[in-house]
TrEMBL record:
InterPro entries: IolE/XylAMocC-like, Xyl_isomerase-like_sf, Xyl_isomerase-like_TIM-brl
Boundaries of every Xylose isomerase-like TIM barrel domain copy: 21-250
Keyword Isomerase among UniProt keywords: yes
Group of enzyme by EC: isomerase
Record EC number: 5.3.99.-
Classification via PANTHER family: HYDROXYPYRUVATE ISOMERASE (PTHR12110), XYLOSE ISOMERASE (PTHR12110:SF52)
This protein's encoding gene: iolI_3
Chain segments annotated as transmembrane: none
Pfam families, alphabetized: AP_endonuc_2
Gene3D superfamilies, alphabetized: Divalent-metal-dependent TIM barrel enzymes (3.20.20.150)
Name of the protein described by the UniProt record: Inosose isomerase
One Gene Ontology molecular-function label: isomerase activity
Amino acid sequence: MTTLAINQLSTLRWSFQEDVAAYAARGFNGIGIWRPKLEDFGLDRTIELLAEASMSVTSLSWVGGFTGSDGRAVDDAVIDAIAAVRDAANLRADTLVVLAGGRNNHIRNHVKRTFCDALQEIAAVAEDFGVRLSIEPIHPGCGDEWSFVNDLQSTLDIIERVGSPNLGLVLDTYHVGMDEEVMGWLPDVIPHLHLVQFGDGRHSPIGEMNRCLLGEGSVPLHTIFETLAKHGYDGPMEIELIGEDVEAIPYDDMLDHTRNFFDRMTGSVKS
């Protein structure tokens, strides 16, 4: 059975206990964990709570900033990432999400080399712990400070350059799904695909991320879902809903809408 999860960013104001109870009540069998919430609640308590709810961890988010764009030195970002690898192993997370960091006024070749060097160091530890790392390409319209990796092709290039069997990618439909070329890339991406995050938006990202309820935006979610299924993707799926268009919607209503949307979408494909 495919794991269907909610990322905790979607219910940021709730406590960890509220997240798990609400997700489980609607039949979501996975959770995407946000590291600040994990730190607040505690690793041991989290493992116990998820075991009681029979809920798996689809992702742990995030590590990165290896270009210095968030003010940290590269070595500090690597140390933080290695600590997160250990947490991901204890949580039995499907993947640890990686953001490259912004260009930070460096030339592209320099930041790419810096990122790949950091990834090789982290991947060696991840391989020892059996943890998968997943680069997430971020749309440049809303994420220049978060990542210089903005599309599927550049993500695959980095994966090939690092050459770790534990390194793959996260496909977030909000960031890449409005690109008309994405459907053509999906067959090449699926062998490296660790997680699909479903997000929708009324227009291409500009400034802050602003996602809307699934099915109410411009991302061809049904087509993406059908293409993934056609080419054999059977990994976890996670929903991430944040931004001005959803922040006023009660979390319970947002989760109900998401559950209904996925029931309709998966039902139409199965039929």
